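User: Let's play a game. I give you a shape written as tokens, and you guess the letters that built it. Ready? Here's round one.
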């Protein structure tokens, strides 16, 4: 099974930048689609950005032009570069991957990393 672990969250001033990392460990055949989600207290987890195995990206409207998702690299780490951060970006951010186990696919999540943007 694949385990995902996020890092890179923290407190930043409005207009600042953060880069979130998501490291994958464990054994797997391949990783298919990858994504970042975020969740506010009391709200459902929402998609922020996703990237297919072919490299096609998709972003929620509020982060377009500010966030960039990159796929897993040779070190099995994916990133979310977040620029020009706003207070409304404050949330717990989770990475997500659709894993090809050879005979079947499954989805796995990291534990989340807190991002707080101060106005």
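Assistant: Ready! My guess for every position:
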């Amino acid at each position: 099974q694949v385990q995902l672990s996020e890092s890179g969250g923290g407190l930043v001033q409005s207009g600042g930048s953060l880069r979130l990392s998501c490291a994958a460990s464990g054994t797997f055949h391949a990783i298919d689609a990858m994504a970042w989600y975020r969740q506010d207290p009391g709200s459902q987890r929402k998609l922020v950005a996703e990237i297919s195995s072919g490299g096609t990206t998709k972003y929620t409207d509020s982060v377009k032009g500010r966030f960039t998702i990159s796929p897993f690299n040779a070190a099995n780490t994916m990133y979310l570069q977040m620029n020009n951060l706003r207070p409304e970006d404050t949330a717990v951010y989770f990475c997500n991957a659709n894993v090809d186990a050879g005979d079947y696919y499954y989805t796995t999540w990291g534990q989340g990393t807190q991002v707080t943007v101060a106005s």
